[in-house]
Task: inverse folding
């Protein structure tokens, strides 16, 4: 029996299937990176990365996030907490923000629910980064990346680790897989799973 491999997009993530001649489908590999919606209000913050009038906990910090989903800034950076609906789901989330002006990157961290590539849902820490105007990497404003930490078995992950996606200026995922945060650049490296 011969198999053919096809690629399909589901929830913005690439899934590969081997389809046998008799029509049965069996997954041959799957990107387990979760789907995190990058909302319009969050992308608007990238064009003007500053705290709103009602922001709290304003200070200077050199890092944001928790555990494996944390990133270091290039130096002391503007930090604040603000309630914003960052994923356009109609629910205002309590977010932490850190603007690294030297890199031109806005980071945000929150505890929230996210969709799994296998159709389920999970919750945990979500770290996102968006490139702001004049960013050192020369990336389009509003593009960036997000990561979450998954335990083995959660969201279909075979191994515990950090998973995430890079996304374009419209919030569409461009590369997803196992992610490594580079504290030197503030960017992530993604090992795309096929």
Result:
């Amino acid at each position: 029996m011969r198999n053919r491999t096809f690629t399909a997009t589901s929830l913005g993530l690439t899934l590969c299937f081997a389809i046998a001649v008799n029509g049965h489908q069996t997954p041959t590999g799957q990107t387990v990176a979760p789907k995190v919606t990058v909302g319009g209000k969050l992308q608007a913050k990238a064009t003007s990365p500053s705290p709103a009038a009602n922001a709290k906990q304003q200070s200077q910090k050199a890092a944001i996030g928790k555990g494996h989903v944390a990133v270091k800034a290039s130096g002391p950076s503007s930090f604040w907490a603000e309630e914003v609906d960052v994923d356009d789901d109609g629910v205002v989330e309590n977010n932490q923000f850190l603007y690294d002006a030297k890199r031109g990157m806005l980071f945000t961290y929150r505890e929230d629910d996210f969709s799994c590539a296998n159709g389920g849902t999970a919750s945990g820490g979500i770290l996102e980064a968006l490139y702001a105007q004049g960013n050192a990497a020369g990336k389009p404003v509003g593009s960036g990346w997000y990561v979450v930490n998954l335990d083995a078995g959660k969201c279909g992950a075979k191994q515990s680790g950090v998973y995430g996606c890079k996304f374009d200026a419209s919030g569409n995922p461009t590369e997803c897989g196992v992610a490594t945060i580079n504290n030197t650049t503030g960017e992530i490296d993604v090992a795309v799973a096929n």
